[in-house]
Each structure stands twice: as C-alpha cells, then as structure tokens.
C-alpha cells in the first residue's frame, strides 16, 4: 500500500510537472477583474456581451475583422432574429458575381460572415503603418490570459517610462509583450453611448468587449459546462455502482 | 459434430452455430472470460485497458471529425473552427479528440512506468514489451501529425521543427526533409499527407495492439510481485474479477477526462495554436505538446545538431533493448533494494526533463537538462547492467497466494504490503 | 478458482449481486446511449448549412416564355415565366388524366410564374426544358433524359416512370421583380 501510494504520487508528479512548467513561466500579472463567465459555473452576462458587441461594432471593427462569426450568431447573444437582421443590414457586403459577371453590393443578411474591414491582409497592413490588426474571432483563446489579457491591454496604455525608446508610430502598453504596440489607445471615456445607461468608462468598455470576445471565441462555453456537470454527476453515480459491484464480486475471494 | 467444425461448448443454438464455424465466442471466452489472471493486480494494471478504450475513443471521434475537416492550408484552420461552432456537437467531438491525445499519453506513460517498475519487460515477455514500444512510437507519430492538422502557429512550426530533425543526417538529410514535405517548406502537400497518415496510423496501432495482446495472452500477465503464478490458487478468471475492476477504473478515468473536456479544454494546449499558421513569423516561444517535452529537452541538451537528434531517437530506442540491458532475474522493484531508488530517480530525471523542455533554452535550464539527460542514459547503459551483477535482491515470496493471504510469510514490509484493491 | 466461484459466502446471496450488476449495466447502457447521440447528430446539417436555407432571385429580366434556374440548398430551382398559351394548356388538363392530380392554381402564386424544384421525382436527375432548344416532351413542360419522364407546363407528371409532380418549394414574392425561395 505504502509503495503504491508513493508510486502513484510519482506518476502524478511525472505528468503534472511539464504542465506546471508553463504556469510558472507566466510572470505577467494582469489587473484583477471579474467576469460573469469565471469559474466552473459561470455564464455570459448577455447585457455586458451585447454592450461589448456595440463597442466592437463602433470602435474595434474599423480595423479588426471577426471573420469566423456570422450575423446569425448574434441571436445566441440574446438579440432577436429581427435585431440581428438589422445589425446585418447595417453593413454593406459584397456579393456576386451576378448574371453579368460583376460583383455587387447589398445589405448584409443573417447568413453572412461579419464584414471584414479590409479586403485582405496586405490592405490591412498598408492602412496600419505595416502592422496587421489580428482577427478577433478566437482572440481570447489565442492569447495567454484570455479575457483578462484583453481587458488589461485595453486599459494598459501609459506614457512610456523615462528612457524607454519607442519606435515611430508605436504606443506604450504596460501589458503588451515588449510594451510597444501599433494599436493606439482607442478607448476614451464615453466613446460609445450605451443604450442601457451604463456609464461608458474605459474599464467598463474593456470589460464588456472582453466578455463579447470570450463569447465569440467560445460560443459553446455555457452548453459545455452545463453538459459537463451532468456527465460528471452521472459518472460519479456510475462509479459508486461499479465500485459496489466490484466489492461484491471480489468479496468471494477473501 | 460434423468434420471440420469447431467443437463449441456453447449451448445457445445460434451462438453455437456461429461458434462452430467461426469460433469467436470460444476465443472471447478463452481470452477475456476464463483467462487465468494473477489475483494480486493493483490498480496500475488497469492502464492497459484504459489505453485500449482511449484508442477506440480517438478513432471514433476522429472518424467523425474527418467528416467535417478540410485538409487544405487555406481552409484547415477555419474548418476546425467551423466544427467548433456550426457542426452539431462538433465542439464536443473536437475537445474529446484534442484532450484524448493527452489522456492517451497520460495512460500510456503510466502503463510504461508500471512495466518498468515491475519488470514486465523481462523474459519471457520481451516481445510483448517491444510491441508496446512500437505502439508508443506510432502514437508519437500519430499525435505529432494530428497536432499539425488545425494549421495553427504551433501546428506549422512544430511540423517545421520536427521534420527538420531529419536534416541533421549527413548527405541524405536534406533530401529526406524535402521528401517529407513534398516541397520546399511545410505547405499544402505536407498537410495533405499528414492528414492521410494521421487517419491511417491509428488503425496500424490497433493492429499492433492486437499483436501486443496476443503476446500477452501467450505469456500471461506479470504481477506486482513479479513471480509467475504457481498454480490455480494464484490466478482468478479475467471475468468477472478484472472486467469489473477495469470497468471501475474506466469510470474514474472518464471523470478525469470529462473534467478536462468540459471545464478546461484548452489547458493542455497552447494559445498560439489558435493563431492561424503564418510561415513568415515564428512564435517567440515554441514548445511541443507536453507529452514530447522530455524528449525535446534531450534534443536541446546536446549542443550538436546531429548529436541531439541521435540522442533523442536513442532515448526511445533504448527502450527496445531494455530487456537485455537489465540482466537481473528479479522482476519487481519491490525486491530490488538498489534498483528501486535508481529507477525512481530515473523517473524524477524524466520529470525534470519534461519541466526544462518547456522552458526557454537558457541557463540554468540547459545545464539541468544535461545532467538529467546524462542520468537518463546512464540508468539504462551503466546502472542497470551493473546492478544485475552487484545487487542482492530481497528474498522472493514462494508464490503469489502466500504473501497475499493474511499473516503471510516472513517477508520485508514493502513486499508484504497489501495490494491496493483490498485497501 | 473453481471452488471460489462455486461457493459464494452465504451472507452474499447471488440475487443481490445480480441486481446490482443489472442496475450498473443499465446505468452504463444509458451512458453509452447518451454518448451515441452527439455522433449521429454531428452528421445532420450543421448550423451554417441550415442558415443558407433561403435564396433570393431577381426575376424582372425574365421575359415571357423564358426560364431561369437558380440554386437553392444545392438544388436547381426552375423559374418559368409562362406564356398565356402555356397557362391555358396547364389549366385545360383534365384531373382524370393526371397521375398525381393537382390543379394548376394550387401550384402557382401568380399565374405567370411557375416555380418548381428542378429534380425529377423519379431518381433525381435534372429534366430538360429550361433552354428554348431543349426537348420539352409531349406536354411542353420538361423532359427527363434519364428515364423519359415528361412534365407539363405546370410541372405535373404526365408520362414516364416518375410517380409525382415536380415539387413546389416554399417561396415568397418580395416584390414584382424579386422572389425568395425557402
């Protein structure tokens, strides 16, 4: 028994060590921020996510695409199909070719992907001083720190410390790796006018847009967690039954 | 019974009719029903069955994922995200498959650890062990190619770095790499062939698993004491004793699996793989998946390109010849007072290698990795052969049933310890 | 091992173990059953496929007697601007002569426009008759080259192996010149 426990502990250490290696590597700490989707049972605060959509639409979307999302997805965000359709229709998308072989423009529909601000990456670079604004569809999955990092980044613009040499056209950010980011500080107080009268502070907008982006990156999160709870409860009961049966069967041997 | 028909013992007429012509029922009964199995397994002996189930889970989810995946550089990343967003339960299939790879390695590493601790590789089980190492190698190849398929940054650069290992070989190296790529960089032909092979190899693994089990059922299982069963009093039929014990272990295993899949599905992955592959920018800190880190650390511990590659392949090749490196007739480490601490230290060395493998290639990690890698090799090439000559093993129990019975023989505390299942 | 199997201790009656085994096995079976569903479900149309459930088409440019084909859910939809003679012909048909009786009025929303899915109801070929040069069969509608089914100017089956009329999809006139199918 003694030996087995040791062996199990060793085995566990063997498996966990490489994992903790990465956790230790993350030295950066972000400002503390709480999200509705934190923890095991967290879910998306729809109001915050919708405000985040507004921030994305009015601010971020001028440079950042979200090409994996479609307007129909907004129904999952709590919009009615009519509201989502209105959002879609407020964008002009290019379709075609038509019968004459020409591309044409039309209002967006639910089935359309989010409109890209630039026709391609080269155009995006050309308009942004050579920097490519990343696609935001899965950004919280693609960055260490996820939503916390997004919030920290958006609220992390500062004046460079004395002696810090900045590249031309770059901005100082406390949380961006290397601290020099091509994106300017675009969130200013009351940048957007929230429909629900929430004061549009920079922190509020950053949190809302981080919520929206997390939803965009993991739209399955709520269903996943709900299903996980049920499945694990089921497995625990099944484990109890199996263990009881195992004891019964093995009882013969002693 | 008619000439040429198998002599079936089954009474049910339908089963009997089939069994006489194709004795699958007799075979199942013999191999998984009445199969005599040592009675003193601890829970480490569950991991073979767990590995088998994981392989089936991986094949099943993989086949369904392949129905929606597009193996093209311009569409692979988006097609995986489409699976996550639009395909019904696609996220579930993908997260099971993605985390299943990690679970598979956790299970197989534990299985290998058990085999090494209890000397399961020793005569007459050398081929059983070697088929196991073949499975391990195939798993590594499959996992590597599967990781390339989502075509994220880590996929692309992992593929680039690993395929470039072959360029270390003199003269033919570069031709091999070009051949592997099907071009002059990792690109669409590479992705396509990796998809093809990633689909193929699991079935090859299943074939080798069959051989692995066939070999196991010739020699019979080893057990925590490492002494062969002396007679019927030492064994119990596989069913129901071990079927139920494996089932219990399986359910517990699924709980751990479910926690990963449903609550921290991306914990074992790397965020950079959610950035689409970009051949022009290497991520600042590239690491392989966690299960390759110890070998990656060995690669980096050697300052010479070819030397590092050879050491890395050598570290796995050594496993093939382990049965002949360890000449001690005693199997279980319970009765090997010297080998036991050396082996546990070897495990620590592997853990340390895994840790530094995930760290940047700078001090003090480089030095640490060199010491750990040196010990890794010394254990196989120096310590084990030497111990076989100088070690005085503890007295072995006469049979399995004696120490298992209460008030067993006059054995050292460690050996007389009760197996876990009775705790 | 035989004796241990043959004589279970008296305080462990077989029935209790059997009952427990049955409960456990049923539970496990429920679990397996629940796991099968996501796999089957994943093969059903995905959400992006379902989202493309409707197609829009401009019909203003289609002159009388002309027909166009548009795509809807990966299938051809025939849009035919019928002439007065064709409407006349479709309405004159006797119900008793039809294999799958349906009035022409029940198959159109506006008399001039016949909109049907261009898939022969026999085995899924696309019938001829959209182009003026196509063979249209004896009834002036469509002719399926695969097995010779013939449809009239209302898309009804008149001759050949097809069992039913060409299917009329759900569609709406968004305006006089624009329709949405689906």
Automatic annotation (TrEMBL), chain A:
Heme c binds at residues 60, 63-64, 183. Gene3D superfamilies: Cytochrome c-like domain, Cytochrome c1, transmembrane anchor, C-terminal. GO terms for molecular function: electron transfer activity; heme binding; metal ion binding. Binds 1 heme c group covalently per subunit. The keyword Phosphoprotein does not apply. PANTHER family: CYTOCHROME C1, CYTOCHROME C1, HEME PROTEIN, MITOCHONDRIAL. This is Cytochrome c1.
Automatic annotation (TrEMBL), chain B:
It comes from the Bacteria. The keyword Ribosomal protein does not apply. It holds the Pfam family Cytochrome_B. The keyword Membrane applies. It is found in: Membrane. Heme b b566 binds at residues 111, 212. A ubiquinone binds at residue 217. GO terms for molecular function: metal ion binding; oxidoreductase activity; quinol-cytochrome-c reductase activity. Signal peptide: none annotated. PROSITE patterns: CYTB_CTER, CYTB_NTER. Keywords: Electron transport, Heme, Iron, Membrane, Metal-binding, Respiratory chain, Transmembrane, Transmembrane helix, Transport. It is a multi-pass membrane protein. One of its GO terms (cellular component) is respiratory chain complex III. InterPro entries: Cyt_b/b6_C (IPR005798), Cyt_b/b6_C_sf (IPR036150), Cyt_b/b6_N (IPR005797), Cytb/b6-like_sf (IPR027387), Cytochrome_b (IPR030689), Cytochrome_b_C_euk/bac (IPR048260), Cytochrome_b_N_euk/bac (IPR048259), Di-haem_cyt_TM (IPR016174). The main subunits of complex b-c1 are: cytochrome b, cytochrome c1 and the Rieske protein. This is Cytochrome b. It comes from Humitalea rosea.
Automatic annotation (TrEMBL), chain C:
It holds the Pfam family UCR_Fe-S_N. GO terms for cellular component: plasma membrane. It comes from the Bacteria. Its cofactor is [2Fe-2S] cluster. Keywords: 2Fe-2S, Cell membrane, Disulfide bond, Electron transport, Iron, Iron-sulfur, Membrane, Metal-binding, Translocase, Transmembrane, Transmembrane helix, Transport. Binds 1 [2Fe-2S] cluster per subunit. InterPro entries: Rieske_2Fe-2S, Rieske_2Fe-2S_sf, Rieske_Fe-S_prot, Rieske_Fe-S_prot_C, TAT_signal, TAT_signal_bac_arc, Ubiq_cytC_Rdtase_Fe-S_su_TAT, Ubiquinol_cyt_c_Rdtase_Fe-S-su. The keyword Magnesium does not apply. It is found in: Cell membrane. Gene3D superfamilies: Rieske [2Fe-2S] iron-sulphur domain, Single helix bin. PROSITE patterns: RIESKE, TAT. Its EC number is 7.1.1.8. It is a single-pass membrane protein. GO terms for molecular function: 2 iron, 2 sulfur cluster binding; metal ion binding; quinol-cytochrome-c reductase activity. The keyword Transport applies. It catalyses: a quinol + 2 Fe(III)-[cytochrome c](out) = a quinone + 2 Fe(II)-[cytochrome c](out) + 2 H(+)(out). The chain crosses the membrane at residues 20-40. Residues 80-180 form the Rieske domain. NCBIfam families: Rieske_proteo (TIGR01416), TAT_signal_seq (TIGR01409). The Rieske protein is a high potential 2Fe-2S protein. Belongs to the Rieske iron-sulfur protein family. The main subunits of complex b-c1 are: cytochrome b, cytochrome c1 and the Rieske protein. Component of the ubiquinol-cytochrome c reductase complex (complex III or cytochrome b-c1 complex), which is a respiratory chain that generates an electrochemical potential coupled to ATP synthesis. This is Ubiquinol-cytochrome c reductase iron-sulfur subunit.
